[in-house]
Write a structure and sequence with these properties.
Chain A: InterPro entries: BACURD1-3, Beta_prop_At2g24240, Quino_amine_DH_bsu, SKP1/BTB/POZ_sf, T1-type_BTB. The complex is a heterodimer of chains A (488) and B (488). In chain A, 14% of the residues lie in helices and 39% in strands. Chain A has 488 residues and is mainly beta. The relative contact order of chain A is 0.09. Chain A is globular, with a radius of gyration of 26 Å. Chain A folds into two domains: 70-85 and 98-120, no CATH class; 127-476, YVTN repeat-like/Quinoprotein amine dehydrogenase (Methylamine Dehydrogenase, Chain H, 7 Propeller). Chain A has a four-stranded antiparallel sheet, with no helix packed on it. In chain A, strands 5-6-7-8 form a four-stranded antiparallel sheet, with no helix packed on it. In chain A, strands 9-10-11-12 form a four-stranded antiparallel sheet, with no helix packed on it. Chain B has 488 residues and is mainly β. Chain B has helices at 26-31, 66-70, 97-109, 118-127, 132-139, and strands at 52-57, 60-65, 92-93, 150-156, 163-168, 175-179, 182-186, 193-197, 205-210, 213-217, 224-228, 234-238, 251-257, 261-267, 273-280, 286-294, 308-312, 317-326, 329-338, 343-350, 356-362, 367-372, 378-382, 393-396, 414-418, 421-426, 429-435, 446-450, 463-469, 472-477, 482-487. Chain B is globular, with a radius of gyration of 25 Å. Chain B folds into three domains: 2-43, no CATH class; 49-143, Potassium Channel Kv1.1, Chain A (2-Layer Sandwich); 147-487, YVTN repeat-like/Quinoprotein amine dehydrogenase (Methylamine Dehydrogenase, Chain H, 7 Propeller), CATH 2.130.10. In chain B, 9% of the residues lie in helices and 39% in strands. In chain B, helix 3 (97-109) crosses helix 4. Classes of the chains: A mainly beta (488), B mainly beta (488). The interface between A and B is large, with 53 and 54 residues.
Chain lengths: 488, 488
């Protein structure tokens, strides 16, 4: 090979791989590129305690100098850090080392830290290929009643009156005792402190009035929101039936929660999370019939012009009934509504097969429901809603809705639909234009309990099973995790 | 085993002397032929032909010779490095120097690296695009020894779908498992896996062609599907249209493989014609149509498609076998096609009462082995002296448990040939047939060996699939959500 070709190759390599970085960490010489160790040209010294060092590294790097910057840190830790940055999703280090490495990465600035966090994060969640990777077991009151994951893979659990926060490495980072006895709905808001990774928890209970905000980092109660109306004295001690999961990372986006008064009157309140002032009231209704019962699920859809979706399901001796409604919070009008049993399906064979649960995919703007009688799963496009927008998913497998849909729950994540049934947890994923159904859990796992709560975030699926304490964490792994069969 | 060096020579790290790596004795030359495929070690060459190369790996300098690096093959960036010159800096790679030192030591000596580092080293070797034989040598240091096979690993599989096909690519040692509509692929080290969904609702046969491509087919869905193992998008669908009215509707019953052809046994959707198609392995264009059959009157033979395809490399023949269970009993055929002239070389008709339950061909023994469906006995036919009738030589009893002649002892038994051995699965057990050591000129004698340890009261589930590759035997058992790996 001629030297001319070689110099050309190194130039294209430079463009692809970034600039060379030479660094002397604790006496060991390391050489890497900015693609691996993303030291930004613009300083963020405020976030990095080794600011002076990274500035010097940047200067040397820009000058293409042969000199290397000296950093007085442990070289073996740095070597570990560098290998994980070079090969993301490789062997995850043990938890204690992981914490140490995250701290080490934070010294080199935010770009390095965020790249390192994504290198440690689980690979994209594929429902048809996920396995139980961990069980989060709170030390006290381990029956989890509500959970709220974040896009970084961390999760907040409500168990009885406690809220526990688990970080992205699934280590318990804080536990807070609230004055509530049984938290039934939980959401989270980004932390108001930029340095703190711990969020603000938003909790509500069906057994205690008010919506309560807690700063998990400081362990303090930030305030409560109550539904009140000076002109109506009956609205006394109303409780929260559902809280919309946080839809954006900004601290100023409004918080939506469904409130219900003791005489069953209900509405959705829009709350400013900073001032805790009620900004608006949507869809106040009497609550005397199933068609006006308090919402069991509220979802804020910023991707759909800030619309708010709500649904309510009542189950009785004669089956299920419920409604779903889409609100425009600016005008306070319902944009679309359907109630089941009823509507167009009255004349079809689907009459009486109303939904047992429904979920909204805010990214792909789709609604997914599971029917209680047949157990079938249907999808509706949020942009083309009409009288009967449902398209029923089918697989060539004839036993698609086997076991019916009684007490089924549905959750969608990244274009996949997870359905928890009596017979287990199934997932629908689209392959080459058609939907394919697969089981997530094995039969033995499914016998341990029916899935009661299910949330996904950060490429992890969090499950609570009936009668089983703790939260199961399912994720996709590129490792085969073989077990040894050789006789001891 | 081969890994004991005769001199107990230690491998020096960053050797500057080019002659030190060329001082192996002749025994070594044979053993490490695979590694030093590209180098000529028979005479000690002058230094100018084997220049010293300096590498900068993550800040650490390595000195080695061009010949050591040339073993990494033409695709590797290490094999085509420029010769050192005083003006140019040593070529730089942003990788971990500690891991590279192990790879270099492996390249120099051929000794396997410490097994604890294997996952990281395989990732490094993949980064430097080592060729598959070298990757295999790195991950599987031991040779296949059928007499020391024992169960060593259990690979768990996610979900609930039963295993419908297990196969190992002979060229890249990739293991593929088909379950329902998905294909799970394990890397040669069995440490990493990935799963993709296919457009097929239920896969019946799968064959990995390379680490990124597999061929899959189903009995009830048209087309031979080339599946992209790294992403969910299908690569290509290959069809056979025997009649203009039945376009793109033929289903796949078996898939076979030769070093340059891909074979697939197709049956038309009306099940009135069948043929074996050969495709080239580069563009996947049909090259040959072998043994086409159209149903003719009531003749049963014309209606049986091939359900097993095996390539006999030493003879350049394709074995195709098919059988049919009718009211009059089993009947079938084993045919051998010459793919160069596209004609039938010879054929074994199976019209007697003891038709094969499964048949396999051994390339190194040049013989066909079958297991009789009613007796469960093992038979052998020598391919060098095949006649028009009565080819089978009885070699062993099937261990008939009762005198009941109606019982089909061989039903569900599997037979596979690997290297110089024949493996037969009966219920939960595997037996291995090997050639007995005989004096020259004497007739060939095959002897039975029982594999594994038998434990009192242990009931093993029925073996449904057997696959061989590297130093491993892979077993799938009925209803088990894992693969059993036997290693020597």
């Amino acid at each position: 090979m001629s030297t001319g070709m070689m110099s050309m190759k190194t130039e294209t390599d430079m463009e692809r791989d970034g600039r060379r970085v030479r660094v002397n960490v604790g006496g060991h010489h390391f050489e890497t590129t900015t693609r691996t160790l993303p030291l930004s040209d613009v300083g963020d010294e405020s976030a990095s305690t080794l600011g002076e060092m990274t500035t010097r590294m940047r200067m040397l790097m820009l000058a293409d100098s042969d000199e290397s910057a000296f950093v007085d840190r442990d070289p073996s830790l740095f070597s570990h850090l560098l290998s994980l940055l070079r090969t993301p999703h490789s062997i995850p280090p043990i938890h204690q080392l992981q914490q140490q490495l995250i701290h080490e990465a934070s010294l080199y600035g935010l770009p390095v830290l965020s790249r390192f966090r994504s290198a440690l994060a689980p690979p994209p969640l594929l429902g048809y290929d996920s396995s139980l990777s961990a069980t989060l077991l709170p030390a006290s009151n381990p029956f989890v009643t509500a959970l709220s994951p974040a896009p970084d893979g961390s999760v907040c659990l409500a168990h009885a009156g406690l809220i526990s926060s688990y970080d992205s490495a699934l280590a318990c980072s804080s536990t807070l005792r609230t004055h509530l006895d049984r938290i039934t709905s939980l959401s989270r808001l980004p932390s108001p402190h930029s340095q703190q990774p711990l969020p603000v928890a938003v909790a509500g209970s069906l057994h205690h009035p008010g919506l309560h905000l807690y700063d998990l980092a400081r362990g303090t109660h930030l305030g409560s929101v109550l539904w009140s109306d000076p002109s109506d004295t009956r609205l006394y001690k109303s409780w929260v039936t559902a809280i919309a999961p946080s839809s954006s990372s900004s601290t100023s986006s409004p918080l939506f929660a469904s409130f219900e008064a003791p005489h069953r009157e209900n509405c959705i309140l829009c709350v400013d999370p900073e001032t805790l002032q009620v900004m608006g009231e949507i869809g106040r209704q009497s609550g005397i019939a199933a068609k006006s019962a308090a919402a069991g699920r509220v979802v804020h859809l910023p991707q759909l012009g800030g619309a708010v979706f709500m649904s309510s399901v009542s189950a009785g001796a004669f089956g299920y009934s419920g409604y779903m409604r889409l609100w425009d919070p600016r005008s306070g009008d319902a944009v679309w509504e359907t109630s089941e049993p009823g509507g167009r399906s009255r004349n079809s064979s689907r009459f009486g097969d109303s939904f047992a649960d429904v979920d909204v995919d805010g990214e792909q703007l789709a609604l997914y429901k599971v029917c209680w009688k047949s157990g079938d799963v249907a999808v509706a496009d949020l942009r083309k809603l009409g009288d009967d927008p449902w398209i029923y998913l089918s697989d060539s497998d004839a036993v698609a809705g086997a076991g019916g849909g009684v007490s089924s729950i549905v959750h969608c994540y990244k274009g996949q639909v997870f359905v928890g049934r009596q017979s287990g947890l199934e997932v629908w994923s689209s392959a080459a234009g058609s939907w394919r159904r697969n089981w997530v859990d094995g039969e033995e796992e499914a016998r341990r309990g029916v899935v009661r709560h299910m949330e996904a975030g950060g490429n992890r699926l969090f499950l609570c099973r009936q009668g089983l304490d703790g939260v199961q964490v399912w994720q996709t792994s590129c490792f085969s995790h073989p077990t040894s069969l050789s006789l001891a | 085993m081969i890994n004991k060096g005769p001199h107990g020579r230690t491998v020096s790290f960053a050797t500057k002397n080019p002659h030190s790596s060329a001082s192996f004795d002749s025994k070594y030359q044979v053993e490490f032929l695979l590694i030093h495929l590209f180098s000529d070690r028979t005479s000690s060459p002058p230094m100018s032909n084997n220049p010293i190369i300096t590498l900068n790996i993550g800040g650490t300098l390595f000195h080695t010779t061009q010949r050591t690096l040339s073993a990494t093959g033409p695709t590797s960036p290490l094999a085509s490095l420029p010769l050192p010159s005083p003006s140019s800096p040593p070529p730089f790679f942003d990788r971990d120097p500690d891991l590279f030192s192990h790879l270099l030591s492996f390249l120099r000596s051929g000794f396997p690296p410490p097994s604890s580092l294997l996952p990281s080293l395989l990732a490094e070797a993949e980064f430097f695009s080592f060729p598959p034989p070298l990757l295999l040598k790195l991950s599987l240091p031991l040779h296949f020894n059928p007499f020391s096979l024992s169960p060593s690993l259990s690979l768990p599989l996610n979900g609930r779908e039963h295993i419908s096909s297990v196969s190992i690519s002979p060229s890249s040692s990739v293991l593929s498992v088909a379950r329902g509509c998905k294909v799970t692929t394990f890397t040669p080290s069995l440490l990493h896996k990935s799963t993709v969904l296919t457009p097929l609702p239920f896969i019946d046969t799968v064959l990995p062609l390379s680490p990124s491509l597999a061929a899959a087919g189903a009995k009830d869905f048209p087309g031979l599907h080339l599946v992209n193992l790294l992403e969910t998008s299908p690569a290509k669908v290959l069809h056979w249209s025997p009649h203009p009215s039945q376009e793109n509707s033929s289903t796949v019953l078996a898939i076979g493989y030769s070093p340059n052809l891909l074979f697939s046994s197709f049956e038309s959707c009306r099940r009135n014609s069948s043929a074996i198609l050969a495709f080239d392995l580069e563009k996947f264009e049909p090259v040959l149509e072998i043994g086409r059959k159209e149903i003719f009157a009531a003749e049963i033979d014309t209606a049986i498609p091939s359900t097993k395809l095996s390539w006999i490399n030493n003879l350049g023949l394709l074995m195709a076998a098919g059988s049919h269970a009718g009211p009059a009993g089993f009947s079938g055929y084993v045919k051998f096609f010459d793919t160069r002239s596209n004609r039938l070389a010879y054929e074994i008709q199976e019209k007697n009462s003891d038709c094969f339950a499964d048949v396999a061909v051994s390339d190194s023994l040049l013989s066909v082995f079958k297991i009789g469906v009613s007796s469960g006995d093992v038979y052998m036919a020598d391919l060098r002296k095949i006649q028009s009738f009565d080819n089978w030589v009885f070699i062993g009893e099937g261990g008939r448990r009762s005198g009941d002649m109606k019982r089909k002892e061989g039903l569900g038994c599997k037979i596979e040939c690997y290297e110089k051995n024949v493996f037969v699965s009966r219920e939960g057990e595997v037996e291995m047939w090997s050639e007995a050591a005989m004096a020259e000129g004497e007739e060939r004698v095959m002897k039975r060996n029982f594999m594994g340890r038998w434990k009192e009261g242990e009931e093993k589930k029925k073996i449904t699939h057997l696959a061989f590759g590297g130093n491993r035997m892979i077993l799938a058992r009925k209803g088990e959500m894992c693969l059993e790996v036997w290693q020597s």
